[in-house]
Amino acid sequence: MKKLLIVAAVALAIGGCAGNKSDGQVAANNQSAERDDMICRAERTTGSMLKMKKCKTQAQIDAEREEARNTMHTIHSSITGATGTDKR
Predict the structure, then answer these.
(1) Are 84 and 77 in contact (CB under 8 A)?
(2) Does any domain span residue 70?
(3) Which residues does 40 contact at the CB level (< 8 Å), separation at least 6?
(4) Residue 4 counted as domain residue
(5) CA distance 75 to 69
(6) Does some domain include residue 87?
(7) Among 11, 17, 46, 71, which is 20 to 30 Å from 80 by CA?
């Protein structure tokens, strides 16, 4: 098992060195730009006590929030027969 891990590590190291330096710099710049836009939070998965780091862009967070809002509206409308307007 140790030999397999060593061989895999050496193969990755050699493969990483074989690429163009400029390509690596471009990839590093893209990754740092993506990281700047990411918002990371420690969240617990349902049923677990462990927190996992989850990173998302603000656009992803907004889209998930809107989807959850629409889902809740659909559930509420199907139960109450409401059309979305409050008639008190």
Answers:
(1) yes
(2) yes
(3) 53, 54, 55
(4) no
(5) 10
(6) no
(7) 46
Q: Look at the chain and report how many structural domains it folds into.
A: 1
What letter does residue 84 receive in the DSSP assignment?
Answer: S
Give Cβ neighbours of residue 50 (< 8 Å, ≥ 6 apart).
44
What's the pTM? 0.46
Residues 6+ apart with CB under 8 A from 58: 37, 39
Question: What domain range includes position 36?
Answer: 21-80
Q: What is the pLDDT of residues 4-63, one digit of tens each?
A: 556 556 565 665 555 444 555 555 555 555 556 899 999 998 899 999 999 999 999 999
